[in-house]
Specification:
single chain; mainly beta; three-stranded antiparallel β-sheet; 3 domains
Length: 236
């Protein structure tokens, strides 16, 4: 046990201890990792030394004994630093933090679907597409409301038509015309543009009028059937 005035730490200060074995007549010691000036304690064979009388530590890297050490003397350095929370929250179970927590350098938020984590090692981003998709941040509740109305409104097709209070009504609208501007090949190959399922399927448009631009090709692949205006909205 070290002899001398005990060192006490406030809750937000951490310390570490380094030990070296001296050579005969050694006076200068390099402290691995450095130290904060005026925040280091030095012990020699368990006895605490007084700064200025027994040693000097003024450059943040080395400590000089004013009386040379003997062979195999144990020189101990106790270094003080601010407590770093990095890596501290990594145990299983509930964790409680009070006050504000800032996260930098990237962090993960788990998202589940029907109880299954869909973000671990698989999903890198969630893309919400279609008109009517909105994110609304509630500063009081600290929540984010996600509204997805671009692919199925009140009537189940098209884009929702809302009430005056912005809630979804039983009605939706569908654009009268849509233009096919690039070549399109409806096929059965997973991952390719134009993928329309691996089995026999129907390619359906609920838009009354489809205009194919000049020079553009639309190919219906094997086991695929094109059905345009399946609801016969064009007859209305």
């Amino acid at each position: 046990m070290a002899i001398g005035r005990p060192v006490t730490l406030t809750p937000n200060v951490a310390s570490k201890i380094l030990n070296v074995s001296a050579t005969a007549g050694q006076t200068s010691f390099t402290v691995a990792g450095g130290y904060r000036i005026n925040e280091i304690s030095v012990f020699r064979n368990g006895v605490r030394l007084a700064e200025g009388s027994d040693f000097t530590a003024t450059d943040g890297a080395t400590v000089t004994l004013l009386s040379a050490a003997s062979l195999n003397d144990t020189i101990e350095f106790q270094l003080f630093d601010s407590f770093n929370i990095s890596g501290a929250i990594n145990s299983v179970g509930d964790q409680t933090l009070s006050g504000s927590l800032s996260a930098t350098g990237g962090f993960n938020i788990g998202i589940q679907s029907a109880g299954t984590d869909v973000t671990t090692g698989v999903v890198t981003a969630f893309n919400f597409v279609g008109s009517g998709n909105t994110f609304l941040y509630d500063a009081d509740a600290k929540t984010v409301d996600i509204s997805i109305s671009g692919s199925g409104g009140g009537g189940g097709l098209g884009t929702a038509i809302n009430y005056e209070d912005a809630t979804v009504s039983p009605f939706s609208y569908i654009d009268r015309e849509a233009i096919v501007k690039d070549n399109l090949n409806f096929n059965s190959t997973v991952g390719e543009t134009g993928f329309a399922g691996v089995n026999t399927s129907y390619v359906v448009s609920v838009i009354p009028k489809i205009i194919v631009s000049s020079g553009v090709g639309v190919t219906v692949g094997a086991r695929k059937t094109m059905v345009v205006d399946v609801l016969q909205l064009g007859e209305l």
